[in-house]
Amino acid sequence: MADPYVTLGVQRSASEADIKKAYRKLAKELHPDRNKDNPKAAEKFSQVTSAYDLLTDKDKRARFDRGEIDGDGNPTAPFGYGGGASAGGGYRPNGAQFDFGGEAADLGDIFEGLFGGGRAAPGGGGGFSGGFGGFGRRAPPPKGANVAYRLAVSFEDAARLAPQRITLSDGKTIDLKLPAGLESGTQMRLAGKGQEGPGGPGDAIVTIEVQPHRFFTRDGDDVRLDLPVTLPEAVQGAQVRVPTPEGAVMLTVPKGATSGKVLRLKGRGFHRKDGGRGDQLVTLMIDLPADDPALGEFVVGWRDNRNPRGRLGV
User: Fold this and answer.
1) Alpha-carbon distance 75 to 142, whole Å?
2) Which of 105, 279, 281, 287 could form a disulfide with 228 if both were Cys (CB 3.0 to 4.6 A apart)?
3) Per-residue pLDDT tens over the stretch 5-60
């Protein structure tokens, strides 16, 4: 029932970006893979993950801030009743009055409406009818703890949202459907796949880590690739094969292409949350052979009087 703000070390006024930044820092420090000899780190990691889940859920965060639920997401007792009376007023068992800033208010009618009975139980014992032993409903039994997992996903699988298989702590495997808008740090919740508890099992929290690629790079929702082409292909134009996350495709290199020219392959990037998809941006890089006698002889007899560096002021 820890305060999630305290768990993450942020102020109550923290923005969602502040909360995400704090979580990533703590998750990196406490991740079980980095603390195999420290079982308390795994427990703390689960607490940090649960706090992050609550504070990034706008509805749950608002309810927690209003005192309607506790740090575990369970409902709190009405009026914040905790079984005791405050010195300045609070609960008065014989008078059924509360003191709000110096004004006594008779809450008998309010309790009658809440609990569906009269002020006193039929036996005249001074309690409220309806089977309640106090002012608050008994909180439901807590669920089991959430269990955190990390899932490494290849660059190509992340771009095309290929299904992934994960093995849970109980040995069972689950096939996951990756969500649109996927990026490193994206979390997926598997309801009821956590530890068992009196109120039922907790959840499994799967954090996705998109793996880097040896020649693809990500630019927002786009995929970038530097593509080597020969001098004849650049000068004369050509049809060349280009790798994409979903397999090779043919690309037209226009005549007179220069290094740095960017060509676009529509819809070959990452899936967006709005249903669209990014592109693959291919940057042409003219690749010249080293120490080629024929190319050397050609250059000796050929002159280019342009100044390609003129736009740089030199």
Assistant:
1) 10
2) 287
3) 999 999 999 999 999 999 989 988 888 778 877 878 878 888 888 889 899 999 89
Q: How far is CA 108 from CA 88, 96, 138, 168, 171, in A?
A: 20, 6, 20, 52, 55
Q: Is residue 242 within a helix (H) or strand (E), and if so which, with residue range?
A: strand 238-242
Report the 10 Å Cβ neighbour count for 116.
12
The answer to which of 34-38, 95-99, 153-157 has the lowest mean pLDDT is 95-99
Dihedral (Cα; 253, 259, 260, 263), 10-degree rounding: 0
Q: pLDDT, tens digit, for every residue of 229-287?
A: 999 999 999 999 999 999 999 999 999 999 999 999 999 999 999 999 999 999 999 99
Non-local (6+) Cβ contacts of 199 within 8 A are 140, 141, 142, 143, 144
User: Is pTM, for the whole model, over 0.70?
Assistant: no
Q: Which sequence spans correspond to the domains of the chain? A: 1-77, 145-212, 217-301
Would you say how long the chain is, in residues?
314
**Domain 217-301 in CATH 1.10.3230.20:** no
Distance in angstroms (rounded) separating the CA atoms of residues 261 and 237: 13
Write the DSSP string, 186-203: -EEEETT-S---TT----
Provide Rg for the chain, Cα atoms.
Answer: 32
Q: Catalogue the long-range contacts made by 59-64 (C-beta closer than 8 Å, 24 or more residues apart).
A: 64/4
pLDDT of residue 192: 93
CATH architecture observed for domain 1-77: Orthogonal Bundle (1.10)
Q: Which helix (H) or strand (E) holds 26?
A: helix 16-30
Residue 244 burial class via C-beta count within 10 angstroms: exposed 0-12, middle 13-18, buried 19 and up: buried
pLDDT at 134: 46
